């Protein structure tokens, strides 16, 4: 019996990356909040027992991630930062850019998460928020007449879902839904999924969104969840067809 093949070696993490993680752990262990001042460079060198160059590189890594902010002048130094929602989505999107996601991958998550979001918002939105949702749907009152308009309608439709996510009191739910809207927007634009005209996709999506706003305004949680689930299932089917048409066209070239 032959020996099992060795598992692939994990890429070795550089010393500055390791120290950056140690600094993050140090901040978390002390429950430091945004704006808290970090030890100076000399203190960091002594604390983590590394060279000046390693500390500086580790701090540059954390600053690039938005986890620390550096200020110069009197009262300056390094402070705990707060990663914005947009920055977090951008960093994670960079990872998924190389994962070859499909429309099905995205909708597998959307079908689970977005009906729950809809149910959680029923009866809890202000008149101003309901109005804002209706205005988003009214941005595309008629079928597109050009590929550019089709693209803009797809993006506007996804903004509706990102806006719903903003209204959630659950920050994790907010992030997940808004991030999926971001990923699907990128897929639509990068792969030109908007180019085959699809009146059914427009009509079905618009009708579901209008019905959903009515259910949210009326406080009907079960109905809102059912509408969103139907919306996700239909959109997945139609977007898969868009994706297949684009791939056939690409292969025929």
Q: If you had to describe this structure to a student in words, what would you say it looks like?
A:
The chain is mainly alpha-helical and 253 residues long. The protein has two domains: 15-80, Arc Repressor Mutant, subunit A (Orthogonal Bundle), CATH 1.10.10; 86-252, GntR ligand-binding domain-like (Four Helix Bundle (Hemerythrin (Met), subunit A), Up-down Bundle), CATH 1.20.120.530. Helix content is 68%, strand content 3%. It contains ten helices and two strands. A two-stranded antiparallel ribbon has the order 1-2. A hairpin with a 5-residue loop joins β1 (68-71) and β2 (77-80). α4 packs across α8, α5 (103-121) packs antiparallel against α8 and α5 packs antiparallel against α10. The protein is elongated, with a radius of gyration of 23 Å. The termini are far apart. The mean pLDDT is 85.
């Amino acid at each position: 019996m032959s020996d099992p093949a060795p598992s692939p070696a994990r890429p070795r993490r550089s010393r500055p990356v390791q120290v950056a993680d140690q600094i993050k752990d140090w901040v978390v262990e002390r429950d430091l909040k945004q704006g808290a001042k970090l030890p100076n460079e000399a203190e960091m060198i002594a604390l983590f027992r590394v060279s000046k160059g390693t500390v500086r590189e580790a701090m540059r890594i954390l600053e690039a991630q938005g986890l620390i902010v550096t200020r110069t002048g009197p009262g300056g130094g390094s402070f705990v930062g707060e990663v914005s929602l947009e920055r977090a989505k951008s960093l994670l999107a960079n990872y998924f850019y190389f994962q070859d996601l499909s429309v099905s991958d995205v909708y597998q998550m959307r079908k689970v998460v977005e009906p729950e979001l809809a149910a959680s918002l029923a009866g809890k939105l202000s008149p101003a928020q309901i109005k804002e949702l209706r205005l988003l749907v009214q941005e595309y009152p008629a079928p597109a007449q050009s590929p550019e308009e089709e693209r803009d309608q797809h993006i506007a439709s996804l903004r509706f879902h990102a806006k719903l996510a903003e209204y959630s009191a659950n920050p994790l739910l907010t992030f997940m839904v808004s991030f999926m809207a971001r990923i699907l927007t990128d897929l639509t634009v990068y792969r030109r999924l908007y180019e085959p005209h699809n009146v059914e996709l427009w009509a079905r999506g618009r009708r579901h969104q209008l019905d959903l706003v009515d259910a949210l305004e009326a406080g009907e949680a079960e109905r809102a969840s059912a509408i969103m689930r139907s919306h996700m299932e239909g959109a997945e089917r139609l977007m898969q067809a868009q994706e297949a048409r684009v791939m056939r066209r690409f292969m025929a070239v």
